Amino acid sequence: MSRRVGVLALQGAFASHRDALDACGVDTILVRHPDDLLGLDGLVIPGGESTTISNLLVSSGLLDPIRAEIDSGLPVFGTCAGMILMASKIVDGRDDQIHFDLLPMSVRRNAYGRQVDSFETDLDVAGFDVPFHAVFIRAPMIVEVDDQVEVLATYGERPVLVRLNNRFASSFHPELTDDIRIHRLFVESLSVPEHVTR
Length: 198
Known about the structure:
By secondary structure, the protein is of the alpha/beta class. It is built from five helices and twelve strands. The radius of gyration is 15 Å and the shape is globular.
């Protein structure tokens, strides 16, 4: 049976995520309204600007329905700003900034520099025979991560791709390459029971 994965389509490169997921053989839904969440097996939260995405989640009426789906165990993959929304703590976030507290880690927004400081690099990813070419754009940094979180890739000494069961997060943009291996990892995890110790 084909999996049904939603991509939050409020901001960011959601179309590129859709293309990568389509290439993984899943049914992909662009999520813009609460009804788009019905029957999903997973959700991707793309990059963009984390404060703007937070505001759009409220104005679209999606915030509470997404929280409810997450509380029911919906697997989530967040990239760049999506990773910020998944973190338990945003070191330099506003007091009223929304985040879903999905992964026990602290992040710092735009820590790898501004738009002009964007860069690309090859990353060694756990389980991959060939490095993954990663694109970093105004990327957030994981400054602290709990021991229960699996680090799948690092840049320097910092984690940039992490996993806790069927919850994934990356500092970079895997959707901006033709390499779908990281999306495939997420799709393959959708059958893994969610179990998070809080």
